[in-house]
Amino acid sequence: MALTPPLSLDQYVVSFWAVRGESRSVQINYTSSDNAAHPFLTLTTTDPQYVPGVGDLAMGDSVLITVFVDTAKIGVSLEPHGLRFGEPAQLKIWYSGASGDLNGDGVVDSTDSAVEAQLLGLWYRSDETEPWVHLAANQSIEEKSFTYALPHFSMYAVAEELMEWSVNY
Asked: pTM of this prediction?
């Protein structure tokens, strides 16, 4: 299901240099209906260790990281795919832009609370040919977010269990 209306982000693709041994981060924000900026995603890295096709990184070496946001799926693709970390990168995704209507029926009610508490989760897959796998991410109902320590890069998304891509912004 597409987002209604589409999520308005300050960036849909962003790249930055991650350096082994240095903390680097990026934040992408969305604009709410009242034109206020709110966080959608933060990604922090300190220890990119292995780059596919390149090999191990020495302390101080860098790798270009690119974050692609898919607003129709409340998901991100992190590249280079397969980048591995010594100390996990930290990913945080907020779903507060859904304004409480998590099942997309136009009404915020107890059904939405049940979806949030019992079905909503952070999912991962290595590429588009693989099935989605539920991650044991930390959910904050208060912040309406998921936080996860990434051991490697791939594709990640916020979705309802067994009902892929049904959360509407």
From this structure: 0.83
